[in-house]
Each structure stands twice: as structure tokens, then as C-alpha cells.
Design goal:
- By secondary structure, the protein is an alpha+beta fold.
- It has one domain: Ubiquitin-like (UB roll) (Roll), CATH 3.10.20.30.
- The chain contains three helices and nine strands.
- Strands 2-1-9-6-7 form a five-stranded mixed beta sheet. Strands 3-8 form a two-stranded antiparallel sheet.
- Strand 6 and strand 7 form a beta hairpin.
- 18% of the residues are buried.
Amino acid sequence: MAVTEKGTVRVEIVPWLTQHFGTAGASHLILEEDVAGTISLGDFLTSLARKYPAIGTVILDLDAGQLFEHVSVVHNDTVLGSAAVLEERIEAGDSLVLLPAFSGG
């Protein structure tokens, strides 16, 4: 029988989003969220959206099942590409940073 590892995922939310969590003016927001085993980023963010409705309005388009175009995700110091980002597997001990999407010119 496999043992399911329980623990937390650290989620850092940068200032441009903190206002949606009732912390306007905060330099950033850190959430420590419980997880059991390995889950997809999409399932994790959907679960967070139930707890923090702002996620479902500014980070994750719940109807379309995708991140809004203006959001980038850093998972354990790696910027995730847009293709299949919500299928990325996360687990206890991981860290996520939610940032504005990068664009250049």
C-alpha cells in the first residue's frame, strides 16, 4: 500500500493581485495550502478558487478551464509555458509564484 504524502504547497502572490485578496498595498501574499499526494496545478487552483474567489476572477478562468492570458506561473523556480500548464503536477513541498505574464518587444 502506497503512503500518500501530506503537506503544504507555498503560493506567493505578487502585489498586482493582492488587492483581490483584501490585502491592497501588501508587498506580496504568501499562502500555505494543504495537499495530499500529487495533483494537477489545475485541480489545485480550482480548489483555491473555491476558498479564495479572487482566483476564479483574476487568475483562473473557471469556465474555460485555463489561466487568464495575463498570468504566469513559476513552479519551483521554473516558469511554466502556456501549453498544458494546468496539467503540471505539484505536490507537498512545492512552491508556486503567480506573476503577471511577461511580454517583450
